[in-house]
Design goal:
The protein has 14 helices and 19 strands. It is α/β, with parallel strands linked by helices. The strands form five sheets. Strands 1-19-18-17-6 form a five-stranded antiparallel beta sheet. Strands 4-3-2-5 form a four-stranded mixed beta sheet, with no helix packed on it. A four-stranded parallel beta sheet has the order 7-8-9-10. The protein is globular.
Length: about 425
């Protein structure tokens, strides 16, 4: 039986650790929440009987985590995911907000489609911010009515899954999006180089006899996109970065003052193309593909030095039929909402690569800043939008227990250290079993 969030009347978070995402000292305090707002922070005496108490000793309390790159599949592919199941997966994974990509059927390219997504998410603990298409039908041709889409609630623009290959059209998209205060989120891929490939092109693909996707297919597109963003002086967010050369180009562009931000995903930070030797597309086929160890290390360095601003999941659920087939026929994509925090805590925070405050920056503060959402402050009188982490809990990834409809995870069976304990948002609380 599924566990549902509970409405808050009064909730006391007892003795949690509150890191400062700006790098200041951590504090330990009680937080009293009434309805949807934080009423008091400090040492709070034993409350009245009508207050629910959560023991947060040893837990980390953070501004609600935001995954700015997920695929909720609705409308049109409800056999893979729905807005409801995607929101439940986000909630179970410790996210209080997600940004949903527009490559649905039909795509999110009209006011009515943006409004549909927002309406379907009403009443869920997780906030959903629709990303609208750059071009009509995601076909790379005529631009969408960006002003109308922004007014309807689109948080950004992307043809994710499809690059905007026409450079003139891409420039105009950047300029129009800037007028409406929205970022362009670009899937950087030169398909004349990558089309027909199924994994990273390199030594392993040659060993396995699988047609490869060359790293330069991403890097060449990143280079073009950066140059156009620099010329247009318009914000650009580069999705799912996977190569060392992409990291280098983004770092150099930032040093020149180009208004660019970037994200990568947990699977690129902990796995390489060596994993594909299992020939398991359910776990290891995604686009961009898993790259080499040199690429993985460059991504980690990009996270450390601020070149990469965000860790997003690129949550992409598929049906069993989409994945239980030959590698070169299987669909691209893996799920990530319910494993991301455990993977990052295990492989990055406990490994000393990121501090808890840096993780919060990459998974809460920066995504909201890039999408121009209201920042979340843990302060008296502010909205209670919180993710509570248990950094020490040990658990084994079991796809059968997922809230998402997808079972296509690269981390099935892995024992992780750390994960979500609870989330609070919109006057509701959800506590993990």
């Amino acid at each position: 039986m599924r566990k549902n969030p509970e409405t808050i009347r009064k909730l006391l978070l007892r003795g949690g650790r509150i890191p400062d995402p700006a790098g200041g000292p951590d504090t330990t305090a009680d937080i009293l929440i009434e309805g949807s707002r934080i009423r008091k922070i400090g040492k709070i005496r034993t409350p009245e009987s009508d207050v629910r108490v959560l023991d947060c000793a040893g837990k980390v309390i953070a501004p609600g985590f935001c995954d700015m790159h997920v695929h909720l599949r609705e409308p049109g592919q409800e056999d893979k995911e729905t807005i409801e199941t995607g929101c439940r997966a986000a909630m179970a994974g410790g996210f209080t907000a997600v940004a949903s990509m527009p490559n649905t059927r039909p795509p999110i390219d009209t006011r009515s489609q943006v409004e549909f997504v927002r309406e379907r998410a009403q009443g869920m603990l997780t906030d959903v911010y629709p990303i609208a298409a750059i071009t009509k039908g995601l076909k790379g041709g005529e631009l969408t009515e960006m002003g109308e889409l922004a007014a309807a609630g689109a948080a950004g623009f992307s043809d994710d899954g499809f690059p905007v290959s026409d450079s003139g059209r891409f420039r105009r998209a950047l300029e129009y999006a800037k007028m409406f205060g929205r970022p362009v989120i670009e899937h950087s891929e030169d398909r004349s180089l990558s089309e027909g490939g199924h994994m990273n092109e390199g030594f392993v693909s040659t060993q396995l006899g699988i047609r490869g996707i060359p790293p330069v297919g991403e890097t060449a597109a990143v280079a073009r996109n950066l140059l156009i963003a620099e010329y247009a002086d318009s914000p650009l967010h580069i999705a799912h970065v996977s190569t060392a050369d992409s990291v280098r180009l983004i770092r150099e562009a930032k040093a020149r003052g180009v208004p660019v931000t970037a994200e990568t995903c947990p699977h690129y930070l902990v796995l390489t193309d060596e994993a594909v030797k299992s020939f398991d597309p359910n776990r290891y086929k995604m686009n961009p593909p898993l790259r080499t160890e040199a690429d993985r290390l460059a991504l980690l360095e990009g996270l450390r030095d601020g070149t990469i601003d965000v860790i997003a999941t690129d949550h992409a659920p598929h049906t069993v039929d989409d994945k239980d087939c030959e590698f070169d026929v299987a669909a691209f994509g893996v799920v990530g909402l319910e494993t991301a925090l455990g993977v990052i805590l295990t492989h990055l925070v406990h490994a000393g690569i990121l501090t808890p405050a840096q993780m919060i920056g990459k998974m809460s503060v920066n995504p909201r800043r890039i999408l121009r959402l209201d920042p979340i402050r843990i302060a008296e009188g502010e909205v209670a939008d919180l993710t509570i982490l248990d950094p020490d809990v040990e658990w084994t990834v079991d796809p059968k227990r997922f809230e998402t409809k997808g079972r296509n995870t690269p981390f099935a069976g892995e024992t992780l250290k750390g994960g979500p304990f609870a989330v609070v948002n919109k006057g509701m609380v959800f506590v993990k079993d």
